Fold this sequence. Notes:
The chain has 7 helices and no strands. It is mainly alpha-helical.
Amino acid sequence: xxxxxxxxxxxxxxxxxxxLMMYLDGAVWIFLSTAVFGIAAFTDFLDGYIxxxxxxxxxxxxxxxxxxxxxxxxxAMIMLTHSGVMPHLVVxxxxxxxxxxxxxxxxxxxxxxxxxxxxxxxxxxxxxMVLIIWMMLIGRLFPGALLVQIIxxxxxxxxxxxxxxxxxxxxMRNRDCIKNAK
Length: 182
């Protein structure tokens, strides 16, 4: 297995560590869980960079990278809803988009195609990761602060918008998969 794919798998393995830390009370656990999420998020950048630099893009990498991103982001978002920092509706919209896109990917695989993430999907993922770090750290340390609530609301609005936009774009660019489905 190549290094980029190992980094994607590391991202998946860091998820239960982050979730466990998010269950624990105290500022130390807030900092540590945010750090674990940040390290896991950094592996997303690093695995893509190495894969492109060394020309080792694989079908498994095209599969595991977005799955690892979704698992990481959704796990953190679910924990943030559990702690009352992120609205449930945000997570539901994002989950619906991810399931729809994964469904389209499965149809494509049935047709012998692997669909890699587009640039809007990458913007979506990075936007989600930035907001998650904000909410994991600032949102949990200062949950009642008005400025924190305003920035969090604007961030949630942005990630819902970019998530929906990237989902629509994904289906538009790959509509031939749906037309060719049996």
